[in-house]
Amino acid sequence: MEQIYLIITYTLAGILGLCFGSFLNVLVYRLPRGMSIVMPPSHCVSCGARVRWYDNVPVLSYLLLRGRCRDCGARISPRYPLVELANCLLWMGSVAWFFPRGVGMVAVACVACSALIVVFCTDLETMLIPDSMLVVLGLCGIAALLLDVFGLGVGIGWQARLIGMAAGFGFFLLLFLGCRLLKGEAGLGFGDVKLMTAAGLLVGWQGLLVAALFGSVAAAVTMAIRAALHRGARETAAGEPPREHAARDDISGAACGEGAEPASEPSGRGEGAAESVSEFSGCGGEERDGEVPSKAFPFAPFLAAATAVALFFGQNIVGWYLGLFF
Length: 326
What we know:
The protein is an all-alpha fold and 326 residues long. The protein is 65% helix and 1% strand. It has helices at 2-30, 60-64, 79-98, 103-126, 131-149, 158-183, 190-238, 245-255, 278-281, 300-323, and strands spanning 287-288, 292-293. Helix 1 runs parallel beside helix 4 (103-126). It is globular.
């Protein structure tokens, strides 16, 4: 009987995670653009057709439509089913990991994971972190702290959470100010400072160490790989024979999305299909929103993913590491 109960619980968590994941896609698309998350209803921004209810079934509709709008055939970004699947798995993982500790922590973990997914995607696509999601993470941290106070938490302790919040704010604020003083430019966005402040409250100082370390290492490795690929591409281009000026103009125009269909990268099912993201990412060395250079590297996706790891395994990782010495 207990196994049946667990199967039903995990299945329900997965279904709810998929459905809420579809709503997360709406947040990812609309929040950075300052749009209402309620109106207008989901539609294809390429042809304007409203998305039918049977085309809004998480993951399944994307597969049946083969990743294209039913009305105009514009491509749908694979980010949509990936977000839905990620939220589904994280909600099921939250139930499996935190349910023995109480329903309260399960709810906190589910909401926090969903907010981290939105932060991950919005910063990756637009170099922006919605303040509303940081508020949600902060409220999750406060809820986890209250659960600790009343003995319903995971044993991190309210003191460790407050220390984590102060450490997250202080350390990343020093990095933010240090980059500006030493380099004269923003090497770290203030949104990252706010993100790690909320993360410190959510996972405590032990989890903050895990999140900061894992996130920084993953970002550094990714930056090194990207630099190597760019260097190889430049060397390959330098070895090619010169092309006609007109051909170069055609290539640069296509890269900037001028008259090229692929440049109108579709945003996906929840908001229809083709919507160019070039207004955020810039083209030809332009700056994002007039401040961030186009060469800027999104750090928050790595911090958000590492915070999710710390939420589930932070205490275990720190305990394992300390066990090597004591």
